[in-house]
Amino acid sequence: METIEIKDLVDYLQSHSDYIKAQTLIRNIPDLKRDSKLRIIVNKLRQQGVPIISSSNGYKYTEDKEEVYIYAALLKNRYIEMKKAHDGLIDWINKDK
Asked: What is the pLDDT of residues 34-51, one digit of tens each?
């Protein structure tokens, strides 16, 4: 029933103009029981081009291109740092080969 959850999540976010805490979303969307499930669904939606941003304030649907651009830049920086961590771990695995 993931499709229903995704539609419910987008509809719920679109009906609010500000950030919504993860716990509020989980409480108000049927079958969305865990933070990790919420993150997976939000990630899938972003991959499809749905403009959902997030911060310590929660999640927010926005059509403000500047907000989305800033968030996309933040994601890119996280990706770069994760790649460095990944490479460091792989270097450690391979150091005595």
From this structure: 888 899 999 999 999 999
Query: 2: which 2 tokens?
Result: 């993931």
Distance, CA of 63 to CA of 1 (rounded, Å): 27
Reported as a single tens digit per residue, the pLDDT across 2-31 is 455 678 899 999 999 999 999 999 888 877
Q: What is the pTM of this model?
A: 0.83
- Strands 58-61, 52-55: pairing kind: antiparallel
Q: Where are the alpha helices (DSSP H) in the chain?
A: 2-14, 22-28, 35-47, 65-94
Q: Calculate ∠ Cα 34-38-41, nearest 5°.
A: 140
Dihedral angle sign, alpha carbons of residues 47, 49, 55, 60: negative
Instruction: Please name the residue that has the structure tokens 């403009």.
Output: 51
Rounded Cα distance between 8 and 3, Å, is: 9
**Are 32 and 5 within 8 A, CB to CB?**
yes
